[in-house]
Every structure is written in structure tokens, then in C-alpha cells.
Write a structure and sequence with these properties.
The protein is an alpha/beta fold. It has one domain: Dihydrofolate Reductase, subunit A (3-Layer(aba) Sandwich). 22% of the residues lie in helices and 32% in strands. Strand 9 and strand 10 form a beta hairpin. It is globular and about 40 Å long.
Length: 173
């Protein structure tokens, strides 16, 4: 079965972007680039919600190359990017189906409603966070409230150049 990883960069106070979607506070380094390059070799599918997709598109990132791209949306009927498939069905059921298919890992991008739905449905296997050394004070939260506690097991923690900390957890079942 394929591994579903919720992966995201966040501030120390648990925001993934400023209120205006800006991520100008992200710290980039050779370490981050190397980690990202290695991670992309382990996946062949990216899933995200419409809001995350629209933010990425405004920043010049449409479809991620060399992987299948799915965007969950109740309002977007077709994708302006031919490399992205819009999915109107239930995100948890869709990802559960993907997990059972042959392939590499599945990355859940962004946060918000899609991540919450996938955590609630217990389809996320791992959480990878690149925690940046900044307190934004406000912005778009990393996690929305869950209806239950989700226990995690630490798999690794690593300090990166620029003061970032990369942590990886497994969802305990």
C-alpha cells in the first residue's frame, strides 16, 4: 500500500502562510533543496485543495512536473492547467482508492480542509514538517481543528541550515 504524507513548511507558531498567502518568510538553503529533491524521488502523486492550488498557480507553480496532480474542489469544474485533474468526489475516498493502487508515495500539499478531511478519515500515514525559525503571529493555520486526538510517533528530526528543523512523524494506529 502506498504511503500518504502530509508535508508542509510552517512557522514555529504553526502558520503555513501569511493572511495574504505570502510565504516570503520561508528560509531556503542547500539543505532544503537537497531534502526536497530526495523526497520528490519517493512520490508520484500530489493532492491538494483548490485554495492551495490557486495560491501555487498565482506564484507561477501550476502542475508539479513528473507526478500526477489532483485538486479537490466543489467549485472548480475544470483546471486551467492541463497537468492537473480536478476531483469533485470525496477527498478521503479518492485518496483511499489511490493508496490501494500501484505506485510511489502520495503527497498532500498545503493544509486546511483537505488535510483535515484526510486526517479525520485516517488516510494520512506520515507528517513531514519543515519548521522555520519565525513567529508570524497570524496567518493561515497549519491545522484546522480535529474531532479527535491524532497520536504521532517521531521518525526523525534534523536541523537544516538557516535554523529550520525538519521533522517526520508516523501516524500511530
Amino acid at each position: 500500500m502506498r504511503t500518504v504524507t502530509f508535508g508542509v513548511a510552517c512557522s514555529l507558531d504553526n502558520f503555513i502562510a501569511r493572511k495574504d498567502d505570502a510565504v516570503d518568510w520561508l528560509v531556503w538553503s542547500d539543505d532544503v533543496n537537497a531534502v526536497t529533491t530526495e523526497y520528490w524521488k519517493t512520490i508520484d502523486t500530489v493532492v491538494m485543495g483548490r485554495k492551495s492550488f490557486e495560491v501555487a498557480a498565482r506564484q507561477g507553480q501550476g502542475a508539479y512536473p513528473s507526478v500526477k496532480n489532483y485538486v479537490f474542489s466543489r467549485t472548480l469544474k475544470t483546471s486551467p492547467d492541463p497537468g492537473v485533474e480536478v476531483v469533485a468526489e470525496d477527498a478521503a475516498a479518492f485518496v483511499r482508492k489511490l493508496k490501494g493502487e500501484e505506485g510511489k508515495g502520495i503527497c498532500v500539499m498545503g493544509g486546511g480542509e483537505v488535510a483535515k478531511a484526510l486526517f479525520e478519515a485516517d488516510v494520512i500515514d506520515e507528517v513531514g514538517l519543515n519548521i522555520h525559525p519565525v513567529l508570524l503571529g497570524s496567518g493561515i493555520p497549519l491545522f484546522l481543528g480535529f474531532s479527535r486526538q491524532i497520536n504521532l510517533e517521531l521518525l526523525s528530526a534534523r536541523t537544516l541550515k538557516g535554523g529550520c528543523v525538519l521533522v517526520q512523524y508516523r501516524v500511530k494506529r
